[in-house]
Structure formats: structure tokens, C-alpha cells
Amino acid sequence: MNWTEISIHTTAESVEAVSSILYEIGANGVVIEDPEVLHREWDTPFGEIYQLSPDDFPTEGVFVKAYLPVGSGELGETLETIKEQLSQLASYGLDLGKGTIAVNDVHEDEWAHAWKKYYKPVAVSDRITIKPVWEEYTPKNEQEIVIEMDPGMAFGTGTHPTTVLCLRALEKYLTPGDNVYDVGTGTAILSVAAVKLGASDVVAMDLDEVAVRSAQANTELNQVHERIQVIQNNLLDGMEGPVKLVVANILAEIIVRFTDDVHRVLVPGGTFIASGIISAKEADVKAALERSKLEVVETVSIDDWVAIVAKKR
User: Fold this and answer.
1) What is the average pLDDT value for the chain, to the nearest integer?
2) What's the whole-number mean pLDDT along residues 175-193?
3) Whole-angstrom Cα distance, residue 174 to residue 136?
4) Closest CA to 253 of 277, 232, 230, 273
5) How far is CA 296 from CA 179, 257, 309, in A?
6) Nearest partner of 195 among 211, 214, 174, judged by Cα
7) Higher pLDDT among residues 171 and 13, named by residue
8) Shortest CA distance to 23 belongs to which of 70, 61, 62, 64?
9) What stretches of the chain show up as alpha helix (H) in DSSP?
10) What is the pLDDT of residues 260-275, one digit of tens each?
11) Could you give the count of Cα atoms lying within 13 Å of 27 in the half-sphere of its Cβ?
């Protein structure tokens, strides 16, 4: 599908009013390009914003953009309506700045790849670096583990704090030769890391069939697919084990539902790494682990996210 981009060059104080006009003409959302973000302190050490370029922002003022499907209406009439309403705002004393309107055609396939420029290789631990497949990267030393990711737009790049916590825990607790269950695998980044850290074999499972396809593609991309079995499965239903390690980067509300199954499939002394837990739910998860006779041995956090490592008694 092709889209018509309507871009209004205005001021920061007029953003809300201009956005309202664009919503009124049928936009489902707006894009705000404000150069202020170039100087903002981002409190996301493992977040998903990288190397913002001044070339993508106006040198002064703000761009407010909306997108309409080509052919969704009479473009000329729509633009006249916008001009009229901008004029009314100006008459009320609102500073519109330049107040100019630009119109461009945008192809959907351009959007599908434009976001990639913000994602760069990220070192998530002393040994592990996540590299988007489209980026060139030279390992710093022979011990560095490089995980290539082609996340698509649905599952992220693996640099969210919950994933980082899991990767660090895997690096610390996985022993070469361990077999692993990766519950709620998503892109299979944890499965790939486990194999590259020395796991003998991994079963990566996810209920979402799209995630299963993404996971399979990423295991092949990293050339570890022969040691990772990707399956569509609901948590640990039907899984018999025994395994040395289970890792799950999912919501706390889900983790508490299958701690008994984790205990069932783990060998004595086996390890459970649980992440995706907001700090407010930490106590609930620990209580569930205790009820299932899984002993908490370490709790680590980044911002408001927590990962818990437990052992089967």
C-alpha cells in the first residue's frame, strides 16, 4: 500500500493543536520529529534507541506528520481544510512558526526497513554482543560471543533489560554440556546464546506460531539450528525432561503458573532462570518458587525489571 505523508512544520508549543487537526482529517496517529530529543538524557542503558541522527530532524521547529492511504479521499480538499484550521489557530495567537505544509508519497516497504538504522551492535555482557544482521561488526577478541539477530518488527532486538538479565544469568550459570528448555522463546536469542555458551542441545518453545518461525530463522542465521529444536508449545505442557536448565523470559503472571512443571522437568540441582518480572511482582514469583521447592539463589535487576535464579532442591 502507498501512503500520503502530510508534514506540517510548526513550533513545539503548537504540536498538540496541530496534531488535533491531523486527527480530525482522519489520521490514526501522528509522528512528531522534535530536535529536542537529540539532547535528551535517555535513561535506557539497554534500551532500543541508538545513534539518533540530526539529519532526521528539522534544524528549527518541529515536524508533525500524518499518513493517509492514497485514494482515501480528495487530497486537495483535505489540504484546504488543514490550511483553514491552521489559519484559525494563528488568529487565536498561537505561534505556528513556519506553518508550512509538505506532501510526499511513501511506499510501505520503505517503512519496513527505515527503523533498522537505529539498531546497532550492543555488548550486553563482558562476553556477549548482539549484532543486527544488517550491521558489520568485528569481534573484540576470540572469547567474544556474537549473536546475530534479524528480529523483524514484532519481537525486538534482544536488548531489552529482561533479555539482558537472562543472557547474563546464562553466562554465569550454564555449564558446557547442559541441556536446556527455553520457554517463550520469541526470537530464540536465549537459545542461541545457550548453544554458543556450550549447551549440548536446546528445546525452544513458544505458543505463537509467528514466534516459532522467527525463532527457527534466527537459529539458522546463527548456524546453531542443528542443536536447537524449535516447537510450538504452551509453556512446559507435555515436556518430560529431565534438563539441567530452564530459562523463561515472560511475564511474572505466567511464571507463577508453571513453577511446579519447572520443578518436574529439572534434574536435582538444576537451574531455573526467570525474567520478564517487574519489581512489584518479585515477591509473588519468589513465593511461587518456594511453594514448588525451588530455592532462590540470586536476584538481579535493571531499572524496574528483575530476574530470579533458582535451584531445584
Assistant:
1) 86
2) 95
3) 28
4) 277
5) 21, 17, 6
6) 174
7) 171
8) 64
9) 15-24, 75-91, 108-114, 161-173, 189-196, 209-221, 252-255, 259-265, 282-291
10) 999 999 999 999 999 9
11) 23
Residue with cell 505442557: 237
Domains and CATH numbers, the chain: 2-115 (3.30.70.120), 119-312 (3.40.50.150)
Give the position of cell 525451588. 294
pLDDT at residue number 8: 94
Query: 291 is written with which cell numbers?
Result: 511453594
Tell me the residue type at 97.
G
Instruction: List, in sequence order, every residue forming a beta bridge with 228; answer none if it has no partner.
Output: 202
Q: What SS3 string covers 28-89?
A: CCCEEECHHHHHCCCCCCCCCCCCCCHHHCCCCCEEEEEEEECCCCCHHHHHHHHHHHHHHH
Q: Please give the single-letter amino acid code of residue 305.
A: W
Q: How far is CA 42 from CA 37, 47, 284, in A?
A: 9, 9, 30
